[in-house]
What we know:
The protein is of the alpha/beta class. It has helices spanning 29-37, 53-63, 95-101, 123-133, 147-161, 167-185, and strands at 11-15, 45-49, 73-77, 79-81, 84-88, 91-94, 110-113, 137-141, 187-191.
Amino acid sequence: MKTANTYAKQIFCLEGDWHPDLRQKDTIENALKFMETASGMKIKYIHRHCSTPQELENRINEYTKKRYAQFSIFYLAFHGVPNGLKLSPKNILSLDELAEMADGKLQNKILHLGSCETLNISRPQIKKILKQTGALCISGFKKEVPFVSSTIFDVLYFEMCQYYKQMNVIEKHMKNYYGKLMKELQFVMVYE
């Protein structure tokens, strides 16, 4: 079984626009700021917006640089559809396209898809993406999830990731502490 190199896992986050009306201010960056400043957490992060496949591919290529090695959680926060991310209302990126962009580039990384329904696909499909990207784990939601509930859940998940190197141990502790919420949000973790 693959394990993370370190306990401390910083976050590299790419976020889409949640609303077509740019006056709306929904963002998960506030949760990231909380994790960076909260006593006992101190999880560093990088946060960027992204709305096209080209931007996403450029960010993935940037992410692979050595200077970002400690950012071992790759957090993609977008609207989602089964087997895809809505980078914008007209740009839906399939997970196969994401895997092609990230082919072998997510070694020793946790790929967290903070988007509705994206992992509402078969486990073998997820394992194929896991293998192609080289990620330690792919996690996310199988159903449409409320913004606030899922963001709070992401914070709990990222905190739990700081305590363990083995994905199965993270999943076990998540079930012990937040099992009911995991079921409600249809959260899944897939790893080798």
